[in-house]
Each structure stands twice: as structure tokens, then as C-alpha cells.
Design brief:
Number of domains: 1
CATH architecture: 2-Layer Sandwich
Order of helices and strands: HHEEEHEHHEH
GO molecular function: nucleic acid binding; RNA-DNA hybrid ribonuclease activity
CATH superfamily: Ribonuclease H-like superfamily/Ribonuclease H
CATH topology: Nucleotidyltransferase, domain 5
Strand order of the largest sheet: 3-2-1-4-5
InterPro entries: RNase_H-like_dom_plant (IPR044730), RNaseH-like_sf (IPR012337), RNaseH_domain (IPR002156), RNaseH_sf (IPR036397)
Structural class: alpha/beta
Strand content: 15-25%
Number of helices: 6
Radius of gyration: 18 Å
Length: 213
């Protein structure tokens, strides 16, 4: 009801049009975040240290990915352009890319994954979809400890806060952040922001599929 009221007021007083899809995303996000709010802060206290000085990093901040000591890293990115949608008011589909680095003993395993995202109404929403895909992969691979890296600072800080109702970052990504937190609740998963030059492989993976959606 609040979402409908908000869209009504924006149309009356700001002459701003709001699509049914936007209302649906907002309502779903608020509902999911209220279900999640308790019990997601314990893992935030566990930090992955830098190798050089052993200093603990604060999740959500910008880091140098090469200095993480974790054995497993998941880089995520998205490629999206609303202008290329045939019905721009309803959003556009994105290409999602995840680049995985796993260390098993003396073996270094690497994989690049491309996926088609859901209909999104903004770029930040597609970036959050990439984060959720990483959580799905963590579950499928039964990985309990990893660093998830994104080049979107809003998404990184929202996921690191693990409080989608109070600190969603952006209302459009609240449901994705809630899902990510729920899927990684009992794992030691850290979330950080990286510069784009360190996220190039995930970006290329996203672009590979972006041209086909």
C-alpha cells in the first residue's frame, strides 16, 4: 500500500509516471527485507585480512583484490542499457558475468560464467542481480568461505551491511540484497568493492551475453 501511495503522490505532485513493474519491485523488496532483518550481523564481524600487514578490512569498502588472503573470490558484473529495450518503461534485460577463482591445495581453478539477468529498471539493479548469482554459485559449489567482489559501491555497501530493511542502499535492490544475505547467512562470505580495472573478466563475461538478450 505504501508503494501505491508513493507512486500516486509522485504522479499528482511531481507529474512523475511510475510503471506497475516499479511498484511490484518496490513492494517485493520491502516484503522480503522485513522477513530477513534479524540474525544477519554475526558474520560481518569476521574479516578477511590483507596478506601484507594482516590488517582487517572493513566490508563494503574499496580494496585491492590482489591483497586478499581468502582462497576463493567471486567477481561479479553486469552489462545493461535501458535505451535498447523495446518497451523502456518496463525495464530491460541484462547480461550477468561472474569470474571465479578457487584455490584447492596447489591447484588454482578459474571459471568465467555468463548468464541472462531478470528484467531490470536500473543499472544498480542489474549489479545486485550479479551478487545474487554469486550467492547461487556459492550454494551450488558448497563453498563456505569466499570474498564476493563488485565494482558497484552501492551494492557492496548494502550487501556488507546485511540489513536490507534499514540499509538497502537503494530501494530497487532491496529484494536482491535480502536474498543474498539469506543465502550466505551461515557462511563466511565477505563483500567488497573493487575498481573496474580489477573486474574486467567478469565485465567481459557479462558483455558476452548482453549482446544476445
Amino acid at each position: 500500500m505504501w508503494c501505491l501511495w508513493k507512486v500516486r503522490n509522485e504522479k499528482l505532485f511531481q507529474r512523475k509516471e511510475g510503471s506497475p513493474v516499479q511498484v511490484s519491485f518496490a513492494a517485493q523488496a520491502i516484503t522480503n527485507s522485513f522477513k530477513l532483518e534479524t540474525g544477519h550481523t554475526n558474520l560481518c564481524k569476521n574479516k578477511i585480512p590483507m596478506q601484507d600487514k594482516g590488517e582487517e578490512l572493513r566490508q563494503g569498502n574499496t580494496i585491492d583484490a590482489s591483497k586478499l588472503s581468502t582462497q576463493n573470490t567471486f567477481f561479479t558484473d553486469a552489462a545493461w542499457n535501458l535505451q535498447e529495450s523495446q518497451n523502456g518503461n518496463e525495464g530491460a534485460q541484462a547480461g550477468i558475468g561472474v569470474y571465479i577463482q578457487l584455490k584447492q591445495g596447489y591447484l588454482n581453478l578459474q571459471a568465467s560464467i555468463s548468464a541472462t539477468g531478470m528484467i531490470a529498471i536500473s543499472a544498480v539493479q542489474t549489479e545486485a542481480q550479479g551478487l545474487k548469482l554469486a550467492a547461487n554459485l556459492l550454494e551450488s559449489l558448497h563453498i563456505q568461505e569466499a570474498a564476493v567482489l563488485t565494482d558497484n559501491l552501492t551494492v557492496a555497501k548494502a550487501a556488507a551491511a546485511r540489513s536490507p530493511r534499514k540499509e538497502p542502499g537503494n530501494w530497487q535492490i532491496r529484494s536482491y540484497i535480502a536474498d543474498f544475505c539469506a543465502m550466505t547467512e551461515f557462511k563466511n562470505i565477505q563483500v567488497y568493492h573493487v575498481n573496474r580495472d580489477q573486474n574486467s573478466i567478469a565485465h567481459e563475461a557479462a558483455r558476452d551475453l548482453y549482446f544476445y538478450v
